[in-house]
Design brief:
The complex is a heterodimer of chains A (332) and B (322). By secondary structure, chain A is mostly helical. Chain A has 13 helices and no strands. The two termini of chain A are 16 Å apart. Chain B has a domain of 82 residues. Classes of the chains: A mainly alpha (332), B alpha/beta (322).
Chain lengths: 332, 322
């Protein structure tokens, strides 16, 4: 098993290096000079002072050295946790801007992913054996999974926020708070703001899990080992327990695959609800052509997806003996 | 009498109508008897085997009765049947290679199965290990997952599991089809040994391999299109078959010691009839070289000799030609 994890870690390491490299390359390959644009925006008309400011900023952002050295510097800075300085929130460092937004995104994503996975799998497993539920839950699930994230988000904001007026439609907390703080009032308020974006992510993901689980459980219940158990008079409960357990395996690897999609969905949803997470930050960064911030956010997203995928790999190996054996090069 | 089957009718429900896979099957199996059940694919062998233990969702018990050790088997009632499965009737399924849960250690799976019947795994562990030794499996396979076993080992493992509660009747459904010849022989011998040691009282061995069943069965029943056409001792079926279909089946087998050279083995022309709308009268009529006018009526299964029955109007003519 050690060999397997070493190989996996190597693969993730290579992926990480490539992702960081692309992340480094994209802004630099884009046409235009961000410093010149910044100066132009600030209407620096004096040629001499413009040239001096250009040189100053080039030096500040490390753009005055050859590309290969910028690349090495980039890696060096990365290991020191230095992602550069944000242009948009100048002079805050990118890392602190991203870290401020990160809890909001994680707070949305983790509960949405995990709850939708648990509830969806449970719902699907029950639907697999109840005709009534199958006929109601399944069409609803198809509808939910086909809905685009932002559309459902807009719909929820309109119904829950505008028509019913139960929930706020924008922000991570009320404007009456000057910033995040640790008090019951703030927590209740933050949860109040959190609910709609969470619900929209949860609902879209839920449908997919329920459909997948229903089909998997039906497949497992039709399989030879289920048949054999039933032929030997095993009670329904035992047969279903086995089927459920085995049907969970593809769902675990499915979870890893879904992560990328859910992260994307979270970005869009945050924009709709003006939720102060990474998604809104991406929008701000793009609108302000803040390449360093964009780089930093993308880096965090890449790390997140890699870490979650790795976790899913580990869990999968722990629950399915077949992968364990296959990886050790044991009996086929 | 261990098993008495009387006019059993089991149909498959399809969108086009009922497929009559078992159309009035009657036979007995004595205590300690191994009955071979032979015939082409689609003649109802497996359906008969399954009917005696568990009807699947599409199968419907239309008529007839089954009694085991003098007590009726409620084959149409899934719930009532559950108490009898494993303990009284058991099966070694066609799909032994995939019969065990791939994600459970074999010992755990057996413990779960026994636990659901209110039997403690601990109490049977010794017996289980002894039986494993008997079929040449070490005790440690109980700690293995099914994928760690070879095909032959899985087959033997399933044989041990299925017979663990000493059922009165064991159905062995095509148990050798997926195995190589040496494993086939070992499995066949194991079945006989299980009977001899009293693990199972009597046995129905479903197979399309007449030469294999000949070696282990006391009696052979030949089925055709959902009915039994001939039943006799294994010796008689192979050496002196009476029904034209049995004769055709036997003559399609190569014989040891004979030089065939360019001669082709005789095959039976045509295919078994569709059982959705089965032909009236004798169902082998369309392929039978002896078919005549009287065959438009269904021939009854009549006794020819002690323990030898066949369903054909032309038995005498058939013998004259042989």
């Amino acid at each position: 098993m050690g060999r397997y994890f070493r190989r996996k870690l190597l693969i993730y390491g290579v992926t990480f290096v490539i992702a960081v490299t692309i992340n480094f390359a994209i802004p630099r390959m884009m046409p235009g000079d961000p410093i010149a644009r910044m100066l132009a925006q600030n209407k620096v008309s004096n040629v001499e002072s413009a040239a001096r400011m250009h040189a100053y900023y080039n030096d500040l952002f490390g753009l005055d050295v050859p590309l290969w050295q910028q690349y090495l510097n980039y890696w060096g800075a990365l290991f020191q946790g230095d992602l550069g300085v944000s242009l948009f929130a100048f002079p805050s460092p990118v890392s602190s801007v991203v870290l401020d937004a990160l809890p909001y995104t994680l707070g949305l994503l983790l509960p949405a992913i995990l709850l939708s996975w648990f509830v969806g799998n449970g719902l699907g497993a029950i639907a697999a054996r109840s005709k009534w539920l199958d006929n109601t839950a399944l069409p609803v699930s198809y509808l939910l999974t086909a809905v685009p994230y932002m559309w459902l988000a807009i719909l929820l904001a309109w119904v829950g926020g505008v028509i019913l007026g139960w929930f706020p439609v924008a922000g991570g907390y009320s404007f009456s708070f000057s910033g995040p703080q640790f008090s019951w009032n703030f927590i209740v308020d933050a949860l109040h703001h959190w609910f709609l974006p969470f619900l929209s992510l949860f609902l879209v993901a839920l449908g997919g899990w329920a459909i997948g689980m229903r089909n998997l459980v039906i497949y497992e219940l039709e399989s030879d080992y289920s048949n054999y158990m039933q032929t030997l008079g095993a009670p329904r409960r035992l047969v279903r327990r086995y089927a459920f357990r085995n049907a969970m395996l593809p769902q675990i690897s499915g979870l890893a695959l879904q992560l990328g999609v859910v992260v994307g969905g979270a970005l869009v949803t945050e924009v709709v609800f003006a939720y102060p997470g990474l998604g809104s930050l991406v929008l701000d960064a793009i609108q302000n052509q803040d390449f360093f911030l964009l780089q930093g956010i993308l880096l965090f997203i890449v790390i997140g997806v890699l870490v979650f995928n790795f976790l899913a790999d580990v869990v999968y190996v722990l629950v399915d003996p077949r992968t364990r054996l296959g990886l050790e090069g044991g009996a086929s | 009498m261990s098993l008495e089957v009387n006019d059993l009718r089991v149909h498959y429900r399809t969108l086009k109508g009922d497929v009559r896979a078992l159309d009035g099957v009657s036979f007995d199996v004595a205590d300690g008897e191994i009955v071979g059940l032979a015939g082409e694919s689609g003649c109802g062998k497996t359906t008969l085997g399954k009917s005696l233990i568990r009807l699947d969702g599409r199968m419907r018990h239309v008529g007839g009765t089954v009694a085991l050790d003098g007590e009726e088997l409620p084959i149409g009632d899934d719930r009532a049947m559950n108490k009898r499965r494993f303990k009284d009737v058991s099966i070694i399924p066609q799909y032994s290679m995939s019969a065990m849960n791939p994600t459970r250690r074999i010992g755990r799976m057996i413990a779960d199965l026994l636990g659901s019947r209110g039997i403690a795994y601990r109490d049977l562990k010794r017996e289980l290990v002894q039986r494993l030794e008997l079929v040449g499996l070490p005790e440690k396979v109980l700690d293995n997952y099914p994928i760690e076993l070879s095909g032959g080992m899985k087959q033997r493992m399933v044989m041990v599991i299925s017979t663990l509660l000493d059922p009165s009747l064991l159905i062995a459904d095509e148990v050798t089809s997926a195995l190589d010849v040496s494993n086939q022989k070992a499995v066949a011998e194991t079945l006989v040994r299980f009977r001899d040691m009293g693990f199972v009282k009597s046995m129905i061995v479903v197979t399309h391999d007449l030469s294999l069943v000949y070696q282990i069965a006391d009696t052979i029943m030949v089925m055709y299109a959902g009915r039994i056409v001939e039943k006799a001792s294994a010796e008689t079926i192979v050496k002196a078959p009476q029904h034209p279909y049995t004769k055709a089946l036997i003559s399609a087998l190569p014989e040891v010691g004979l030089e065939y050279g360019d001669r082709k083995l005789k095959s039976i022309p045509g295919k078994p009839p569709q059982l959705l709308n089965p032909p009236t009268g004798c169902r082998f009529r369309a392929r039978c070289p002896l078919a005549g006018d009287e065959c438009a009526e269904q021939p009854p299964l009549v006794g020819i000799d002690r323990g030898h029955e066949a369903a054909c109007w032309k038995l005498e003519e058939s013998n004259a030609r042989a």
